[in-house]
Design goal:
The chain has a six-stranded mixed sheet with strand order 7-8-11-10-9-12, sandwiched between helices. A six-stranded antiparallel sheet has the order 21-20-17-18-19-22, sandwiched between helices. It has a four-stranded antiparallel sheet with strand order 1-2-5-6. The chain is globular. The longest helix has 18 residues. It starts with a strand and ends in a 23-residue tail after the last strand. It is α+β, with helices and mostly antiparallel strands.
Length: 676
């Protein structure tokens, strides 16, 4: 595997490409021979990881480090090749020789075959540095990223674009952007002192007329990569010449799709909407092909369920007869959405398989259990966007989609999927929107008589100031539709309000700002629940040790609650049941309450599995995800299987913080989630 970024940036913070693209065969064989000599000399049994530095202008190299164990890149290498390193290493450790271990992908060859790839893989790290105040954003030899994505394709361009889009739904791919200012100073600063935005700086540099030579001189990134990326900028320029009423010719659209542009990206450049591009594309008969990863570059017959999607192909590798149930994974690990949602997705898949359903998993995170090809009947290693989900849904003629296990990302496309006639199991997307949309949710709470803190949605600073004077400071200010409290702030004075709103106004023009009365010294309580057609069949109440105002992902959670008044617990149970009924929930949901003097108010409700589901399932011994999966598919389920049992122990969840790894970060907790 080759790092796109030169030496000096930690490999965990580097973009990685596999197989290596810029090494000559001589370089490759030299490093391979060295590796074999090193492991023989050290007597390594099992997995070993060697990092090299190689001079691009000569054959001089040195070994940076050798880890005689599985390392961070082992998971990536296993997912990139389909060769299960840990599985083989464990068998070698037990003394079973390589030639007796079967290759679990091909089932034909033994594990002695080196994996060969007829595709290309790109890994991009995900950083969440904007969640920390005053943190240094420069990338160096200390790792700062919190997750990673992997994309698979047939060309470097296609794969790189898919990977960039996977990192964050707001990224369109490798194209002109607003993340790095188009000034000589800003661009050159970013190219010479890289931060998490360097790849966007390269795109803008090409748009400003920088040459490959100049960018290579500033970044030391290999010219091969830069030439490929320059080709993307050229295609973008051509697409940008089209006006909204001009038809995009077939060969251009086909070429853009082969270069990895998304429908929404093409729509953005050519001034139309995503569905228009999709309809034009399907009208031209341009649809993606499903290819399989077989570890032997198709030299031996292989029937695998490890699949990816590409436009650089002429036929499908598989036939579609299963009509399986699709489960959308959680995507990249980031602050606010991590391995908890992967646990939920895997439990859902296993429950489906135990009940004889065919399953299709969609996820693009190489670190997860859900992207193991033996977990589901079919694994699509693919981005979770409207375009991709529709492509797979239509190709597979799937029985339907479960969106409630992957955190906020699948929830955000729920309504769009529903409008495009995709069958969604569980709560109707219109009711999910009823909980996501503050106006609808607030009106519903008023109708069912459940209290909430006073709030108002405002578009102008003067209105916000008037509202704050009316309810009194402190107030909580945030843009609408967020996961893990992104860009929320507690504001205590009118001068703070002014400075915060000046930043927030630029964040989103079509999304106004919500101002809520912030109640001090209130307890916060999490409820995880499962309902069937609006009727509550299981719920667990967990208590936060910290007062409301620390994000629930950063709080210490106690289950069962130790310090709640029975009256409060009863009121919470009643409110949870009332909200589930009003939203006609089928499946999992989570509500956060605050309580003060035995009065409860609702902070928010998520109609999906939440971060605390694995915690309460493991403490109570009742698998809430299994129950939720069964109710969504109409299987029989026993309500409250633990009724009448009192737990003889207490479970406490404590978050893990990474402040010591983030130079300059302010370690004070607030409404923005900071634990990793």
């Amino acid at each position: 595997m080759e790092n796109f970024d030169p030496l000096g940036i930690h490999t965990g913070d580097s973009i990685v490409v596999a197989p290596s693209q810029t090494l000559s065969d001589e370089d490759y064989q030299m490093l391979r021979t060295t590796a074999v000599n090193v492991i023989r000399h050290l007597g390594v049994v099992g997995e070993c990881n060697i990092q090299y530095a190689l001079n691009p202008h000569s054959r001089e190299y040195c070994i940076i480090e050798v880890n005689a164990r599985l390392s961070r890149s082992s998971a990536l290498a296993s997912k990139a090749t389909g060769y299960p390193l840990a599985f083989v290493a464990a068998k070698l450790g037990l003394g079973i020789p390589l030639n007796e271990i079967r290759n679990s992908v091909t089932k034909e060859t033994t594990a002695c075959f080196e994996p060969s790839l007829d595709y290309i893989v790109v890994k991009i790290p995900r950083w969440d540095l904007k969640k920390f105040d005053r943190v240094s954003k420069n990338l160096s030899s200390a790792m700062k990223s919190v997750g990673e994505v992997m994309a698979i394709g047939r060309t470097f361009e296609e794969t790189m674009q898919e990977a960039i889009r996977s990192v964050d739904t707001s990224f369109d791919g490798f194209s002109r952007n607003t993340y790095v200012a188009e000034t000589k100073e800003a661009i050159e600063e970013e190219l010479t002192k890289p931060t998490d935005l360097r790849v966007f700086a390269i795109a803008n540099a090409f748009h400003m007329g920088y040459t490959v030579e100049k960018i290579h001189e500033l970044t030391a990134i290999d010219k091969w990569f830069l030439c490929k990326l320059r080709g993307l900028v050229e295609t973008e320029r051509v697409l940008s010449t089209f006006e909204a009423d001009q038809q995009i010719p077939r060969n251009l659209l086909s070429y853009a799709k082969q270069q990895g542009f998304s429908d929404s990206g093409i729509a953005h450049f050519s001034k139309r909407n995503e569905m228009q591009v999709r309809n034009t594309r399907i009208g031209y008969g341009i649809t993606p092909f499903v290819k399989q990863i077989d570890t032997v570059a198709a030299e031996f017959p292989a029937h695998t369920n490890y699949l990816y999607i590409t436009y650089n192909a002429s036929k499908h590798d598989v036939s579609f007869v299963d009509n399986g149930v699709m489960v959308l994974g959680s995507g990249v690990y980031r602050i606010g959405s991590s391995v908890e949602f992967d646990w939920c997705a895997v439990r859902a898949i296993r429950t489906l398989r135990e009940n004889k359903f065919k399953t299709i998993m969609i996820n693009y995170n190489p670190e997860t259990v859900s992207t193991d090809y033996d977990e589901a009947d079919r694994l699509y290693f693919s981005n979770i966007t409207l375009e991709r989900i529709m492509d797979i849904y239509q190709a597979e003629t799937s029985a339907g989609v479960i969106i409630s296990m992957g955190g906020q990302a699948p929830n955000n496309i729920a309504l769009a999927l529903h409008r495009n006639k995709v069958k969604i199991f569980g709560t109707s997307p219109e009711n999910i929107d009823g909980a996501e949309n503050r106006y609808k949710f607030s009106r519903m709470l008023d109708q069912i008589g459940v209290d909430q803190p006073q709030w108002r949605e405002l578009t102008q600073y003067e209105d916000a100031e008037a509202f704050c004077d009316e309810v009194g400071y402190p107030v909580l200010v945030r843009p609408s539709y967020v996961l893990s409290g992104a860009a929320m702030n507690v504001v205590s004075t009118s001068t703070d309000l002014k400075s915060y709103l000046e930043q927030a106004a630029t964040m989103s023009r079509e999304h106004p700002v919500v101002v809520t009365k912030f109640i001090e010294e209130a307890k916060e309580i999490d409820v995880d629940a499962v309902a069937l057609d609006g009727k509550l069949i299981m719920h667990c109440v967990s208590e936060h040790v910290e007062n409301a105002g620390v994000h629930s992902g950063d709080a210490t959670l106690v289950q069962p609650p130790q310090d709640l008044d029975p009256v409060t617990v009863r009121k919470i149970g009643e409110a949870t049941a009332a909200i589930g009924l009003a939203l006609r929930v089928t499946g999992p949901y989570n509500i956060q309450f605050m309580a003060k003097n035995n009065e409860i108010k609702v902070i928010e409700c998520n109609v999906r599995a939440a971060r605390s589901f694995p915690f309460v399932s493991k403490v109570t011994g009742v698998d809430l995800i299994e129950m939720a999966t069964k109710v969504m598919l109409g299987l029989p389920v026993t309500p409250y299987p633990n009724r009448g049992q009192r737990l003889s122990y207490v479970g406490v969840k404590v978050p893990q913080f990474s402040f010591s790894r983030l130079q300059g970060a302010d370690p004070i907790l607030g409404v923005e989630m900071a634990s990793t």
